[in-house]
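Take a specimen:
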Amino acid sequence: MQELNLPDFCKTAKELKDAGISYDEPVLDDVAKRGPGKSFYTYLFVFFSLVAVLYTNAAFLHFFGIRVVCILALGTVFCSVNALYRLGRYFYYVNIRKNLRNNRKPIMLQPVGVVVEYNHKGWIDLNSRDFFKYAVVYKEAGVGTPHYYITAYSTDIPESMPAENALLYRHIDNSRYYSIESSYNLNVIKMKDIAYKNAGLPA
């Protein structure tokens, strides 16, 4: 990490763990940010490619026999099942995140710093910041023993230490599912709106 000359507020996941700071991965926000994922589009492309081969090259496939047809057919089934699985998982997580965001009692979070991790999907260049991914680390505000949470990962490192508070939407039964809303101006409006509604006053 030293060759990157990272700011002091950026720490590796190991450094945070050694300091007693642990957190669950931001599954919901990550999925919402990146969509179904590259694997989904890869399987979808291969599926349509195999369907095109089966449809337009009947004579060619007949020449090679039924074995080739069966292999290609199994390939289309395999790719379609995997594509549908990833698409279904995407909508499943997005729906959970949407329901959490409708919660009228979010938790206020305070920024702690930025965590830096290897981005295994990036270019293999240890001297490039593109090889790493970043996320802002938050802790629960006003709690003696706070829990820690992180935003969705990004390849853009913040220029300064994050100073704005955020809102946490946490699943009641599964602590792995949470969503962070880090827009300060929007949070101020939301917190006022929530306070008014809880007090029975018009917003």
Q: What stands out?
A: Helices lie at 13-18, 27-34, 38-56, 58-64, 66-101, 184-198. The two ends are 48 Å apart (CA to CA). Confidence is low (pLDDT under 50) at residues 122-127. The first strand starts at residue 10 and ends at 12.
